[in-house]
Amino acid sequence: MAWSILLTALTGIFGGVPLRALRVVVGSGTFWLLGLVGLLPFLIGKWWVLGGLYFALVLAVGIYSDLEAKGQSLFESGFVAILLTGFLFCSLFLWWANRQGSDWYAVLLSNVDTYLASIPGWNEKLKIESKDIVSQIPSLGMVSLLIGLFTALLFQRRMLAMLGMRKRLPHKLSKFAVPDFFIWVMVAGLGAAFLADKTIWLKVIGINLLNFAAAVFFLQGLAVVAAHFEAFRVGWIWQTLILLVLVTQLFVLVSALGLLDYWVDFRARLAKRVQELDQELFKK
């Protein structure tokens, strides 16, 4: 739990990695209790943004794990966990906006400006207006949860090994694949984002859909990378370094890889190639 609090404070979404290990080790009831207790340092320090992110990770990991324990698939468990967490935070936001009254947008814009100003070098490096960020808060929150949950599941075996535990886990992330219908979510997002110039609200919806779809295909791209890690037995240190670069620096490239995998199916080709290599080695 201490590692989760520290990683959330230092890295944000990577705070979910220890949470997943904690959930596997202690079970559902104790996890939820400890998750709420872990929220106290953020509340005491008045770190509202980090506290909200930590609580969101607790919800996403906890709901996913509970659904997984009931036999739900990887996609179903993850989708419902993200959806329910997003719904809760949306409800909290509506409650906050109602308390602020008609000035809620101005207050939110001011808070975002203040937060961005606290980031070193933000104004010099990125010319992004705060109103553009506010309009994309829904998808940015969902994307953060998606990547946080996926990263937690990606490193769960390593975390359990560090704890000296060997536990059979029901799902392998290298098998993760986006359902076929999801390609239409990206098409709808592209259409609304680039064709609805005169309808602002439709354009905002399109951009948020596009962000969310890009993140989902990013996860499929990471699954392709994970399959290659397994096939070529890449060490966990190299895996960590490569994934850190992919997540922080090459988001668009990995999303394109996941989208291309929709048609090419890299993992099927990889499995065939590995089988051929094994046969050649066996003959020798």
Could you characterize what this model shows?
With 284 residues, the protein is mostly helical. It folds into two domains: 1-171, Orthogonal Bundle (Arp2/3 complex 21 kDa subunit ARPC3), CATH 1.10.1760; 175-284, no CATH class. 80% of the residues lie in helices and 0% in strands. It contains 16 helices and no strands. The chain has helices at 2-11, 16-26, 28-37, 40-44, 48-69, 74-100, 104-117, 122-125, 130-135, 137-154, 156-162, 182-195, 200-232, 236-249, 251-264, 266-283. The longest helix is centred in the C-terminal third of the chain and has 33 residues, at 200-232.
Quick structural gist:
With 284 residues, this protein is mostly helical. 80% of the residues lie in helices and 0% in strands.
